[in-house]
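Reading a protein record of the kind used here takes only a little practice. Think of the row as the fold of the chain written in a discrete alphabet. With that in mind, consider the following protein and its fold in token form:
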Amino acid sequence: MKKIKYIFVLSTAFLTFSCSSNDKAKNDGGTKTDPVEKEKPNSNYKPAFAGQTRVNGVTTNTAFQAVVLTSELTNPWGVKSLPDGRLLVTQKTGTMRIVTPAGVVSAPITGLPAVNASGQGGLLGLCLDPDFASNRMIYWVFSEAVSGGNISSVAKGKLSNDEKTIENATVIYRSSPANASNLHYGGRILFDQTGNLIVSTGERSVLETRPLAQSLTASLGKVIRITKEGKAAAGNPTFAGAGALPELFTYGHRNPQGLAVHPITKEIWLSEHGPRGGDEINRLQAGLNYGWPIITYGIEYSGEPIGAGIQQKEGMEQPVYYWDPVVSPSGITFYAGNRIPEWENNLFVGCLSGMHIVRLVIKDNKVAGEERLLASENQRFRDITQGSDGALYAVTDQGRLYKIDKK
């Protein structure tokens, strides 16, 4: 009976996508089309180089399928694959869950520090220790209420053998300064190639904290690089000026909610929310300034320009790609598998207001094509990761976990 029920569930939540019935797709991104964005931009700002926005569309030729494994999650925010193929998921309200490949959801995993789940806060991104198979250590970002307001914090703990709790949960890093805002926490985390943690923090949205994205004495609007103990990692860039924080890796970010390591170059890429227009994809290089709020391809929600209304400035990095109007990019991952040839080394972006998954074809560190996937699902895609089986897995604000793989 269980097997019959399982097949029935999959058949009702099963979507197949294909542009072509043949298997002749080459690793060129797929069939080229017109740009996928058809809406009018919010501003008349011009890109700094060809291909920085509204590139040609691409369509995947290989038939693939999207399966809803479960719809029983509660505001999932981050998802990572365990070594045995199950998925570990954070839920915004402050617990984790494990989902099996058959879609069975565990009881909430408890033992984590309390989160402030108001607004955009809560239990956010997570990553596994590179030696998780032997030490069972997990690292995560969460919004924490402290004296003076709220902050983005980083914690670690051991998944118990019975998988019911996190043992010895410890906060290892706290951003500063605190602010009463419950917006723009950033919140992604991963390990780099040196075994150190890369963490994104937001600038908290309000006008009083927005300029701190440019301040080297504050950890808001930054990407930081720390050890497993929460200390500044060896080899971090050295910034000029008194009081510059040693954990800083890059600065000038607004609300970066996606981090991923390129499978070939091992460089770190980042997705970042813009205001009204100006969502960005950035390729991170240590010590560089990514411009917010001095340069941006977005405008205020009121329609007014931000600051001087400029998009380029010497000493500030241009985004690899930007969107106007916004798609609200959240979690990102590179496809390192070979089951779908067109997808090799492509960047996949979960989109919130866009309610789809973006596929970006990357060539020589530039975007050569864009595709929108699963738009008919009408879901806010919060995070996406590649599983140990090579498939992609995505979670949505509405509580779904999708498996996306070759048909």
